[in-house]
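seq:
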Amino acid sequence: MNIEDFKNDWRITGQEDFLLNAVLLRRKYDGDDHEHCVFCWHKFMRDAEGAEDCSSEGYVTADGQYWVCDNCYRDFYEPFGWILQMTGK
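struct:
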């Protein structure tokens, strides 16, 4: 599958311009407020345990700018050609 296979998916809004072949890390969100999945707007918060529609960890670019939730990661891992970088944490 490639990105063209998802051209009618409401979540694709030009992310290929900055996330194609990106290196992603699996990380707990440790910011002061919150972030959103760059695809579906799923919310990431530090204390998300038990919160509906919210997670405390996900996938993020090395610079911490773009977050991706588990569902969108599964859906777009292959077409975007992401590289998962393992950390010792």
